[in-house]
Design goal:
The protein has 166 residues and is an alpha+beta fold. The protein has one domain. It is built from 3 helices and 10 strands. A 10-stranded antiparallel beta sheet has the order 6-5-4-3-2-1-10-9-7-8. The chain is globular and about 40 Å long. The relative contact order is 0.21.
Length: 166
């Protein structure tokens, strides 16, 4: 009897929403060194962006905005841009360049260590176990967000999946 109860409990647990798949556009990631968090926000179908996300740092409440854009041929590697305190509305290229913290590819890494380009939102892909943003930590140290009233602990370049938004 006890074995059946244990098996039944295992089946019930396996069917709970907590164990359901998390789609990439709902994923939340954390980085241990600076305690930074990446929360994906999905994409709007009309703006050509593959993903939107926000990176928050608990230290002094610093927040970065991010967008992943389709790559250009022939490689078509998605390209991400992370900004901080950009002007709202129409902005010049110079203004965007001044508020850009980092740009580059975002790679997904699965649980067995396979690396891949992050898929677009709303395509039915499970969230990557880890995100890799090459040279992100170095770029943060060179940004306007670094300093006395901003950040003093730079993040590493890898973020681990910690949860899924509802």
């Amino acid at each position: 009897m006890r074995g059946r109860a244990t098996a039944f409990a295992a089946l019930c647990f396996a069917a709970t929403p907590a164990n359901a798949a998390c789609w990439q556009e709902l994923a939340v990631y954390a980085e241990a060194q600076a305690k930074a968090e990446i929360a994906f926000q999905g994409a709007r179908p009309d703006d050509g962006v593959l993903h939107r996300f926000r990176i928050t740092f608990p230290e002094n409440g610093v927040t970065f905005e991010g967008a992943m854009l389709p790559g250009d041929a022939p490689i078509a590697r998605p390209w991400a841009v992370v900004t901080h305190n950009c002007p709202q509305g129409d902005a010049t290229g110079e203004e965007i360049a001044a508020c850009t913290v980092w740009q580059g590819p975002i790679y997904g890494v699965d649980a067995t260590g396979n690396v891949f380009f992050l898929p677009e939102a709303n395509a039915g892909h499970e969230a990557a176990a880890t995100l890799l943003l090459p040279d992100f930590g170095a770029a943060v140290r060179l940004s306007a967000a670094w300093g006395a009233k901003g950040l003093s602990t730079a993040p590493k370049d890898d973020f681990k999946l910690t949860g899924c938004q509802d």
